[in-house]
Sequence to fold (215 residues):
Amino acid sequence: MDNRRWSLFNHRFFLQPQVKLGTMAQTDAIRWNNRYQEESFLALREPRSLLIEACEWLPEGGCALDLAMGLGHNAAYLMQRGLKVIGVDISFIALQKAKSLCPQIMAICADLESFSLPANTFDVILNFYFLQRSIWDQVRKWLKPNGLLIVETMTQEMKALKPEIDERFLLQPNELKRTFADFEILLYREGWQDRNGEHPRAVASLVARKPSKLS
Fold:
């Protein structure tokens, strides 16, 4: 990983950085710790449909990174398919629950704003419903040539349904596709997604492969 010191917590491969979180990161950690104890979040038991849809492009082995992993259902799906998975999240509560679901997950509690990993490390990177544009260049570097990137998050259209959402956390039209235009785009779409009786969600979905010529 990077030169930062890490401590081992509770289970093998349960890591938390020995750095003091900034005020905003502390606030985020508290908020997400509280949310991951709500019944609505505990009801999330299945991997994302986009991940299942992308199964034909997944490698049979290798190492995957799950950014803002949450409760670990996507990571568990990848592990069932033979991949080793490192999951990163700011919520210690979410990671505890993910480790209970799948003890083999390598779970790291960290603020992704100040997080680093070696280049050309991962065969697969997942990024579901977490938008932090400042790490996109890092994501490119972390992914191996020919590695698979799977991203899905909300778009500006969500303002029509939930005007209180901060625009910083919503994608502009075609922004995701433009950002990774030099990747091989295997699947891309934008639109409204039904959610089994809950309010629909406006999302952009991307499955793309990093070209072998990119390092």
Notes: Residues 1-14 have pLDDT under 50 and may be disordered.
